[in-house]
Amino acid sequence: MMLKISPENWSFLIEFAWLCAKAAGLLGFVSLSVMFLIWWERKISAHIQSRLGPMIVGWHGCLQTIADTIKLLLKENIVAKDADKVSFWLAPLVSFVAAFLPFAAVPFAKHLVVQDFGLGLLYVFAVSSLGVIGVFMAGWGSGNKYSMLGAMRASAQIISYEIPLVLSVLSIVMLTGSLNMAKIVEAQGQVWFAFSQPIAFLIYFISALAETNRAPFDISEAESELVAGFHTEYSGMKFSMFFLAEYTNMFIVSAVAATLFLGGWQGPFLPGIFWFLVKVYFIIFLMMWIRWTFPRFRVDQLMNFAWKFLVPLAFLNILATALFLVVKK
Amino acid sequence: MADLDWVLALKNKFSDTVEEAPSGCLVLPGEDIFRAVNFLKREYGFDYLMNLAAVDYKDRLAVVYNLYSFKLKEKANLKVILPRDNPAIESITEIYAAANWQEREAFDLMGINFTGHPDLRRILLPDDYTGHPLRKDYTKEGFLPMPAV
Amino acid sequence: MPTLEIQQFSVSFGPQHPSTHGVLHLQMDLDGEVIVNCTPHIGYLHRDFEKICENRTYTQIIPFTDRLDYIGAMNNNFGYCLTVEKLLGAVIPERAEYIRVIIAELNRIASHLLAVGTFVQDLGAFGTPLLYCFREREMILDIFEMTCGARLTYSYYRLGGVSADIPEGFVQKVKDFIRYFRPKLADYHRLITNNAIFLIRTKDIGILSKEKALNYAISGPSLRASGIKFDLRKEEPYSIYPRLEFEVPVRNSGDCWDRYIVRMEEMEQSLRIVEQAIDKIPEGDFIAKLPKIIKVPAGELYFRTESPRGELGFYLISDGSTKPYRLKCRAPSFSNLAIISELAKGVKIADVIAILGSLDIVLGEIDR
Questions:
Q1: For a designed S-S bond to A200, which of A22, A168, B123, C247 qualifies (C-beta 3.0 to 4.6 A apart)?
Q2: What is the pTM of this model?
Q3: Residue contact B50–C313, C-beta within 8 A
Q4: For an interface test with C, which of A153, A224, A297 has the most C Cβ atoms less than 10 Å from its Cβ?
Q5: Are C69 and C79 in contact (CB under 8 A)?
Q6: Buried b / exposed e along C38-47 (16+ C-beta atoms within 10 A)
Q7: Architecture per CATH, C50-367
Q8: How many H-runs (helices) and E-runs (strands) does chain B carry?
Q9: Contacts of residue C124 in chain A, CB cutoff 8 Å?
Q10: Can you give the residue ranges of every domain in chain C?
Q11: From C130, which residue of chain A is nearest by alpha-carbon distance?
Q12: pLDDT per residue over C147-182, tens digit each?
């Protein structure tokens, strides 16, 4: 029996296909960006440390990441005997998917967004929180004490820093009255929120560093303590997924920062997407710069900092914003 | 050296047993060493154990203690002679915590038993090793002597 | 209903680990993040140096002393040669003395650079301060390579002096290094010393009191950081140290930050020593005329020198022949490490790393 496809069904199918195409394009773009970011990090770290970094593969080593990815893909798949197979195999996928999903709501340019959600911001934060599950699955599934310790630290850290992250953004939402990312960008026509809400920006940036497990908050990957934390046992393709997930996370967090605080795609003369990418890469550059300069926090100092300092500060900021709005009326 | 305060006091306290060897070391019998070291630490401020070494003179063993006093800026070199079979001496870990590992090393490499040591086990060699390598008569299967120079 | 039991968790730190400075095995019993018990297991690098020495002539032992504290190898050579020369009663020519001291102090700077670099790296400043320190170390190692041909295990010193005269260009290279390095020290202070994160990781961590330090026979920068002003180069001077002006940095709290700062300040003082000595190298022999076959008269001696890690002592019993009867090496790191089980009680894992890094141990001389 022939499937009867009515006009509504057709338009739904076409829309669905278009959505898939956009998502695929975004996946491709993000993957390429992440590969670029990995090379960029190696170059920045090298120049900060008075070295040169990769120089041989490609012009100044720009094809190094591709070479490394091929190497990782060809590696033997080693799974520890005590590993919980299901957790072990799924963890990197969960991490990567959770890192990639928020891109659906981020506007790259005025009309360049996969799906313009009314609740875009809420979606972004909700979905990126799923990354913790991947970390924990990795730690548990490895069947290894070090990985477990690392995973527990990482989970505690990520969950703790989500509070100030979201609280800092709440004041922006109060000012614009909307959770839609595109509207928030448009509300920054006069002055960027980085200047009118500097405390929120600072709290967001610090929390973002902690969310992505970057130094000085990288206690869960502390090579000098627990070898490599929750991804100690991972090698080959699965490890590369974690690696990609980490850089994708950095990208999304910077993209959100650029959208919420630095005016998104706004900028003179050149197309919006160019300015958007410049801002995103600027924030990523700041993150890398900080990583290669500072030592790392101890785990309890890290938690103290989140709960006893950032959260109250974020609340004060919200209070100040609320007062400002009341007075403005 | 013989006319230093603390040397005279030591000789007084342990009168017939303290001798001065030609090298400047004060030789004491094993039973007196704990009290002698304690005495030096309390009265003359020899609060730093620089070195504790075990020596194998072919017919007997010895343990050497090198102490230092920050107050007097003096060094005290004490030596105890022990028999080759069943060498045992009182541990001075209570007086100097530094002696803990040094005595373990002397036990490990020379086989001297330090009675009263809180944790006397091998430190440098594997726990299940047999024999005490630093002894002059040490041999093991496959042990080749050094060719003549 | 079954009760919840909290078990202690036993973790083995090492022997292969990026942060133990060598092959050290720390057995830690953890209660969550807090350490209940910390037992070091050593001996992975034990080569029985003392037994080997009983079968080698005095000159043949010199390469073995390099392998003790392989980071500060020149200082080991120095200590050993001084011990034997004292028993021999040898007189060292002036030129050799000056060369010896300059090289030993340069080695001290190189050793402290490595200690500080790896310490900060263990705390998480991954790579950057370490690579800066190594960049400076490279300059010193180039100077050493120019002089004796080796970069790590030098065997440069000989009984009676040094094995070869300083080459042409040595004085100029050392002066260039001094000029280059001084502002770099200021850079390190700006980068690391007052950094907020560094401070919370090291201040009031691993506090070593004076009494404990003396009881455990701690020596070197760790002792000076606990408030005891004691440097063998000043207290029991040897070689030409009495003619050189330098200060002994002392700090009072005995925490990891103090140990770090004492090392930084010692580098500055070593630089001063090199600066003073490099201009005054006299002409003359670089080695005393000793007989070809060296027989040390019978006797025993315990002689100690100040190596970068502390009091390096050699206890030598000679029976008048060409080989020592008993040579014991009193290694500073051996005594310094014993205190880790005390200091590690009740702190968190990250703090043990900081404490271990600040004690600056080298397994080569612990295990010997």
A1: A168
A2: 0.84
A3: yes
A4: A224
A5: no
A6: bebebbbbbe
A7: Orthogonal Bundle (1.10)
A8: 3, 7
A9: 215-216, 218-219, 222, 224, 294-297
A10: 50-367
A11: A49
A12: 988 888 888 998 988 988 888 889 999 999 999 999
